[in-house]
């Protein structure tokens, strides 16, 4: 039998790990992540604290207050899930859904499809209402769906980044309350870039991500539950099937409902550096002001849309009012390979623009202007780069930029 020394020697250290890590500088103008500001990057490099140290608990409290501001809510059960936006979606579903629950999902892009999948995996009877990618739902569409299917929860994506479509939310909460139905909203690509008012709009469960408008690294994702949502959580017949995402346990870790001085309860080791970064992303939002941040995103999106249309390009979403300010989806001209153009822009300019997702895959480019990256300079930069790439591949451009 081989001795331990010879066993170790049979596995050589990987050569690729014997050189320093090098990461190129790129301008991320896809649907996310966006570039982090120097302030957020500096926060990520701060010394680690213990996940129950009082200094870190204070940072968690700062994050909670920042999420309440970003969401415009007074909900006590407001925190950051340890994970990306997908983790927040799954946390929402796993806490709210029990086997046999009827859940209605609005599908007008990938994220409705993804939520329907998660609900199904948790035993729900999933029903859907559907729109072609790039279109949104009317209140009449939603009311008819809820009256017919009688769900206990209705999901809709506020900013459908696979299609670049913005879903109006006003009035949906009233319909849900009238029919004793919870309203679950995905705001990963919309929060901070377009009006969103959780309490005023009657949203029961709202989640987002760190890597979009907040321009923080993915890894800690905002989520909030209304009193109505907490009531359903309390009435569950079965335990939440995920220990990691159980809001009953996470509430104790985040100090929800605890009196000052009461000890937090250990649940898991939080992503310390990600929470630092999220805190600074939320701080930057608070310093700029939510309304100012929204206006900046809307103004730069209009500039981008005008520039694209001046080049003769077609936006996926026809209705200007339905266009998502943070992520613009552009139809690829006939005869052009989307990947060739995106690769040209990356290789020459170190700028990322992405291809379509779901039904728009292979048919569109997605251009993101979010958070730290949402500037007039970046609008002009990506338009110049796209014009250059299209001309390189023989596309006639209608107007000069």
Condensed summary:
With 401 residues, this protein is of the alpha/beta class. It contains 13 helices and 14 strands. A hairpin with an 8-residue loop joins strand 13 and strand 14.
Structure in words:
This protein has 13 helices and 14 strands. It starts with a helix and ends in a 9-residue tail after the last helix. The chain is α/β, with parallel strands linked by helices. It is globular and about 65 Å long. Helix 5 (110-121) links the parallel strand 3 and strand 4. A seven-stranded mixed sheet has the order 2-10-9-8-5-3-4, sandwiched between helices. The protein has a three-stranded antiparallel sheet with strand order 11-14-13, with helices on one face. Helix 2 runs antiparallel to helix 10, helix 3 crosses helix 10 (272-288) and helix 12 crosses helix 13 (376-392). The chain has helices at 4-9, 38-44, 54-71, 85-96, 110-121, 139-149, 172-178, 227-234, 247-253, 272-288, 290-310, 338-349, 376-392; strands at residues 27-28, 77-83, 102-107, 125-130, 153-157, 159-160, 165-166, 182-186, 205-207, 219-225, 327-331, 351-352, 354-355, 364-368.
């Amino acid at each position: 039998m081989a001795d331990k020394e010879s066993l170790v020697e049979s596995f050589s250290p990987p050569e690729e790990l014997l050189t320093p890590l090098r990461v190129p500088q790129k301008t991320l103008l896809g649907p996310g992540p966006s570039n982090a500001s120097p302030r957020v990057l500096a926060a990520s490099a701060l010394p680690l604290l213990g996940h129950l140290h009082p200094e870190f608990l204070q940072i968690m409290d700062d994050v909670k207050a920042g999420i309440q501001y970003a969401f415009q809510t007074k909900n006590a059960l407001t925190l950051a899930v340890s994970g990306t936006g997908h983790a927040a979606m799954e946390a929402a579903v796993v806490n709210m859904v029990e086997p046999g629950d009827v859940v209605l999902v609005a599908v007008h892009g990938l994220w409705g499809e993804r939520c329907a999948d998660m609900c199904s995996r948790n035993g729900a009877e999933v029903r859907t209402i559907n729109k072609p990618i790039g279109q949104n739902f009317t209140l009449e569409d939603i009311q008819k769906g809820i009256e017919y299917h009688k769900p206990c929860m209705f999901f809709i994506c506020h900013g459908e980044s696979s299609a670049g479509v913005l879903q109006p939310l006003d009035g949906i909460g009233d319909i849900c309350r009238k029919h004793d139905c919870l309203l679950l909203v995905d705001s990963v690509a919309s929060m901070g870039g377009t009006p969103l008012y959780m309490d005023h709009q009657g949203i029961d469960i709202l989640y987002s991500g760190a890597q979009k408008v907040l321009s923080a690294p993915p890894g800690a994702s905002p989520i909030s539950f209304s009193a109505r949502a907490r009531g359903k959580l309390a009435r569950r017949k079965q335990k939440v099937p995920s220990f990691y995402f159980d809001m009953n346990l996470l509430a104790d870790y985040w100090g929800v409902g605890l009196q000052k001085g009461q000890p937090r309860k250990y649940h898991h080791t939080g992503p310390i550096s990600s929470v630092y970064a999220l805190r600074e992303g939320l701080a930057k939002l608070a310093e700029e002001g939510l309304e100012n941040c929204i206006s900046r995103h809307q103004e730069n999106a209009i500039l981008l849309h005008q520039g694209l249309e001046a080049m003769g390009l077609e936006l996926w979403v026809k209705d200007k009012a339905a266009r998502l300010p943070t992520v613009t989806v552009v139809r690829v001209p006939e005869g052009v390979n989307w990947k060739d153009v995106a690769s040209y822009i990356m290789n020459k300019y170190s700028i990322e623009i992405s291809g379509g997702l779901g039904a728009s895959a292979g048919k569109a480019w997605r251009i993101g202007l979010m958070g730290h990256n949402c500037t007039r300079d970046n609008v002009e930069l990506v338009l110049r780069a796209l014009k250059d790439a299209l001309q390189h591949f023989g596309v006639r451009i209608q107007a000069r930029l």
